[in-house]
Amino acid sequence: MTVVTTLPDRRLLLVHAHPDDESIGTGSTMAHYAATGAHVTLVTCTLGEEGEIHVPELAGLAAAEADQLGGYRVAELAAACAELGVTDHRFLGGAGRYRDSGMMGLSTNQHPRAFWQADLDEAAGYLLATIREVRPQVVITYDENGFYGHPDHIQAHRVTMRAVELAAREGLAPAKVYWTAMPQSVLEAGMTHFEEASDNPFAGISDATELPFCTPDKEIAARIDATEQHAAKEAAMRAHATQIPATSWLYSIAGNFGAEFMGVEYFTLAVGTKGPGSGPYGWESDLFAGLGVGESPHLSSVSAAGHR
Fold it and tell me: Which annotated residues bind Zn(2+) (predicted)?
């Protein structure tokens, strides 16, 4: 049986660990490509059941109480995706298959459904099914350390890279795989700006390289300037109200740096060939650079034969 789906020429797949990760880390990039006609697919690996709750009246949803936070966050994620213009969102293996593992070293890492405990090939198989269907040219996820060391982020990295490997065996591998990153120069500028602020998010840190997500500028491959979408990113973040309080330092930085903070996102290139770029390090301004895929939303047929 052959299933033929008509999708835009440019197809982008993002794999994130929990609801809200997509908005904080890649919200502007997602909104930018959705607005320019690309097909943007978001795969979220857990429901975020172990997240903190910053809305007091919803405290009863916590894992230690009714354990219903995950279900509530499904709605928050749907609202965030609507703000970003993303219509194709899936949970890895279906909603609730994998549970939020909590921070590294907690007993929640050992929960029978914890994503940290997921069988790698099984989880990668679920993602492979999406790759077969969508045929993305570009995939985004985290680096080996999950950007900052959360077990679910690390597992999302492992699952994504394994799925890409399996897709390559079928001739379906994406042309590029990017990992989210933050340039050292950007972090240093932020540290300087906030060193006298009462809500300094870098308090106690004097060297940017101490931060686990600090990346030397020369290792950055792409800088996506989606400042025209900074408002969409902020709106998407506000949709995740249980996780990001209105007083969050993220909004404080946004108030100081505005569109530059909310609208510009950076990536390293893990798989594929870097396309044309600019500046001292040749940073790409388009994740599809060098792939010969135009920006117009022309449609193409994607065939998924014999894989269902």
Answer: 18, 21, 153
Domains along the chain with CATH numbers: 2-305 (3.40.50.10320)
Q: What tens digit of pLDDT does each residue of 181-232 get?
A: 999 998 888 787 767 665 667 778 878 888 888 999 999 999 999 999 999 9
90 neighbors 8 (Cβ within 8 angstroms): no
Tell me the binding residues for Zn(2+): 18, 21, 153
How far is residue 43's CA from residue 89's CA, in Å, rounded to a whole number? 6
> Is pTM beyond 0.85 here?
yes
Binding site per annotation, positions:
18, 21, 153
How does pLDDT run across 29-43, given as a tens digit for each residue?
A: 999 999 999 999 999
| Residue 136: both structure tokens together | 């993305």
| Per-residue pLDDT reduced to its tens digit, 95-116 | 999 999 999 999 999 999 999 9
